[in-house]
Amino acid sequence: MSKISDYLCDAIIGGLSGLVTSLTGSSTLGTLIGTFIGEMARFLMCYAPKFKLSNFSEIVKGFMRMCNDGWLQGWHERNGGNLTYRMKEEEVAQCRPFFDEQPREWVNMGVQADNLAGEYFITTGSGKFFRNVESDPVHSIGIVEINEKGDSWRIVWGLEDGAKPTSEFPSHFMNHSVRKAATNGANRVIYHCHATNVIALTYILPLTDRDFTRALWQSATECPVVFPEGVGVCPWMVPGGADIAMATSELMKTYQAAIWAQHGLFASGPDFDITFGLAHTIEKSAEIYVKVLSMGGGIIRQTITDDDLRAIARDFGVTLNEKFLN
Description:
By secondary structure, this protein is of the alpha+beta class. The protein contains twelve helices and nine strands. A nine-stranded mixed β-sheet has the order 2-5-4-3-1-6-9-8-7, sandwiched between helices. A hairpin with a 5-residue loop joins strand 4 (141-146) and strand 5.
């Protein structure tokens, strides 16, 4: 809080105390009322901007809604999963009046991307629960600025009381870089969730792009339309480090989504609706496949054929990744 605001609140306390004392003849009452109103003003000047940003910024509201949507699907037990959004210039301008007066210290990420230098991201916090984002945004999410070298971040709003961006931020950052380049700047969302049926399939299917893509394409008719390029698969790796960030970013040069074995789903898109819809579609298809295997004792009697897949692509005007077709 600025010194000017402090001086203003002290003036309110002194002025109201004197006014109430003169009207009532009670200096004690005057002091109590003046102090109460002055301290309320101090609280509002200090904290209201932080609450106002989360309440009235449309992009922050959209970010919070997607966090809650994922929680309601059951994909974010405890502090599982993370979400980041690369902000547009006009969105940064809208939020800037609510930024901290003094941005916090720069933190090196261990990865670097020239095409993300100077960008701003909304991010979930490390160790934070998706179920708490809507009720306590200033402690659960935040906005970070990237430095001009493209290798460090600093918090400019939210993530109060020592909170930090998600531990997967390096993975998100490198994949934002790749997807920004691959989509000519259109991609803005990176989303990681613990999609239950997708994870289950990583225990039984071969961990190849082809095996997962075919299983998903053939389990729900909309899948070849939603992700015609297929999905990538990353073998199990320790989460949160540079290795998984680099491995995933290689996959995301080709795919909108990648599956982390025994861990979850990594999805991207231009906005919250498209990205959540992609994750939801992949998980729904995985759920169907799991149920089919369970109901049929592992036997699949009929499915969507390769010719059917090509017919879908023709009629919906999409180009399938032919290396996944027979």
